[in-house]
Amino acid sequence: MEVLKVSSHSNPKSVAGALAAVVRESGLAELQAIGAGAVNQAIKAIAITRGFVAPNGINLVCVPAFSEVEIDGEQRTAIKFIVQPR
């Protein structure tokens, strides 16, 4: 499964384009975000992606979950969004 990392500085439209491409290619993608700003950008990107793929008859759903990641030797809690067609 392709993991796309989103930061608070990510452009939601760019993330949406990448997410749409991954969903069309493999049918399943994961967005990973750490922090409130990154989660905000990820949610915006998912909403935009739904608009991108809807004309192709793809209805996306998103399943949020927590994930533990290691950054610079520290354990951090990330929110991951598993995005797939319904």
What does it look like?
This protein has about 90 residues and is of the alpha+beta class. Helix content is about 40%, strand content about 40%. It has 2 helices and 4 strands. The chain has a 4-stranded mixed beta sheet. The two termini are about 15 Å apart.
Précis, in short:
This protein is an alpha+beta fold. It contains two helices and four strands; from the N terminus they run E-H-E-H-E-E.
Total E-strand runs? 4
| Structural domain tally | 1
- Following the backbone from N to C, one meets helices and strands in this order, namely EHEHEE
CATH architecture: 2-Layer Sandwich
Number of H/I helices: 2
* Proportion of helical residues: 25-40%
Radius of gyration from the alpha-carbon trace, in angstroms: 13 Å
| Terminal CA distance | 17 Å
CATH third-tier fold name: Translation Initiation Factor IF3
CATH hierarchy class name:
Alpha Beta
CATH superfamily assignment?
A: Alba-like domain
Percent range for β-strand residues: 35-45%
What's the layout of helices and strands?
Blueprint: E1 2-6, H1 12-26, E2 29-33, H2 36-53, E3 60-71, E4 74-85
Features:
four-stranded mixed sheet; Translation Initiation Factor IF3; globular; 2 helices; alpha+beta; 86 residues
